[in-house]
Amino acid sequence: MPAPVVAEIVRSGFVEGHHYGSVVALDADGTRAWSVGDVDSQILPRSCNKPLQAVGMLRAGLDLDGDLLALAAASHSGEGFHLEGVRRILASAGLDESALQTPADYPLDDEAREQAIRAGGAKSSLAMNCSGKHAAMLATCVANGWDTATYLAPDHPLQVAIARTFADLTGEPVGTVAVDGCGAPLLSTSLTGLARAFRALATAHDGPGRRVADAIRAYPEFTSGSRRDEAALLHAVPGAIGKAGAESCYAVALADGRAVALKTDDGAARVRPVLMAAALERLGVTGESGVDADAVRRTGTLELLGGGRPVGEIRAVI
Questions:
Q1: Which of 133, 176, 279, 298 could cross-link to 260 by cystine, CB 3.0-4.6 Å?
Q2: What are the angstrom distances between the C-alpha of 118 and each of 111, 112, 192?
Q3: Which residues contact residue 202 at a Cβ distance below 8 angstroms, ignoring those fewer than 6 apart?
Q4: pLDDT tens, 12-63?
C-alpha cells in the first residue's frame, strides 16, 4: 500500500507539498496504541540501530559506561568532546584512530564543520559521525581477541553477536543485512520491531540494556550533539531514550514503556522531529508532570521562510 500523508508543507496558508510515511506508537504494556501506514514490513532503521548494537557489544564483553557508552551508540556531531571521547575508547583498547574503518568525513554539525574547514582541517575517519560506534566495535574485538582488521564483515564474530542481540530485542528475525553509510552491517526490522526494541531498553531494570539506556539518559549530547533536536527532546522528557537515523528514521521510548518509531519515504531529515513531537503529543506526553511541553513542541517546530521571515511551516497530520 502507498504510504499515507504524515505531514504537510504549508507556505502562506497554501499546502504546497507533502511528506509520506509511517508511524507506530506502543502503550506502556507493549501493545500497539495506534499506527499510521505500514509498520510491519521490514525497513532499514539506519542509525536508530546503534543503541541496539551497543547492547550487543556489551553482551559480547565490551566494558564501557557513562559518556563513552553513550558515544558508542551515537551519530555524533563531531564536536571536540566527541572526538576526544572516541580517542579515549580507542586508547582503552590499545588502539588509535588508524584502526577506524569509517569513511573520512567532516563533522556532522554545521558549526564544528565550519571551524574545521577554517582551520584547514581535512576530512577524517575520526570526525565521521559513526566513529564512536566503530571505536566500540574495535574495543569489543580486542576484549575477545577477535581480528580487528575484518570487524565489519557480516560473518565476523562481533557482527554475529550483534545480530543475535538485535533479533532478540526487536522480537523479529533479521530479514536483510545491508551496508550502512559507515560501512558496518545494517540490519533490518519493522517499525514495530524497532519500537519494541527501544521499549526493552527503556524498561530494563539491569544488565546491558539498562546500561545503554542510562548512558543515553545521562549524556544525550554524546549520543547526538550539543545543538541537536534529539538531545533537546531527551532533556525535555525525563527518563526517555531516543535515537535518530538517516532516511528520516527516529525511535523514542519512555521510562514507562511507551514507545514511538517512525520513518518517511522521502527520507527528509527536516520532518523527522516534527513527526516525533506530534506523536508524543498524541500519546499525551506533553501533558504529563515533569515534561517540558514547550521544549518538546519546539523540537517539532520547523518554520518556512519567505524574505527572511516565517511564512509557513511543516505541519504533522498524524
A1: 279
A2: 11, 10, 44
A3: 213, 239, 240, 241, 253, 254, 255, 257, 259
A4: 999 999 999 999 999 999 999 999 999 999 999 999 999 999 999 999 999 9
* CATH assignment at residue 34: 3.40.710.10
Distance CA 108, CA 128 (A): 7
Rounded Cα gap, residues 262 and 44, in angstroms: 11
Q: Is residue 76 a contact partner of residue 222, using CB atoms and an 8 Å limit?
A: yes
pLDDT of residue 85: 98
> CA-CA distance, 310 to 303, in Å (whole number)?
6
The pLDDT assigned to 230 comes to 98
Predicted TM-score (pTM) of this structure: 0.96
139 located within any domain: no
Domain count, the chain: 1
Does some domain include residue 254?
A: yes
- Model confidence pLDDT, tens digit, residues 123-167: 999 999 999 999 999 999 999 999 999 999 999 999 999 999 999
Q: Are 266 and 25 in contact (CB under 8 A)?
A: no
Concatenate the DSSP letters of all residues of 150-188 into one string. TTTSTTSHHHHHHHHHHHHHHTS----EEE-TTSSEEE-
Cell of 211: 546500561
Instruction: Give the separation between CA 46 and CA 250, rounded to whole angstroms.
Output: 9
Pairing of strands 5-11, 309-316: antiparallel
Predicted local confidence at residue 2, as pLDDT: 78
Between the alpha carbon of residue 311 and those of residues 9, 12, 148, 277, the distances in Å are 11, 5, 52, 21
Domain range for 238 is 5-62+152-316
Q: Is residue 142 domain-resident?
A: no
**Per-residue pLDDT at 1 exceeds 80:** no
Give the rounded percent of residues in the chain with a pLDDT score beyond 90.
Answer: 99
Report the alpha-carbon distance of residue 67 to residue 33 in Å, rounded: 33
Residue 94 lies in a domain: no
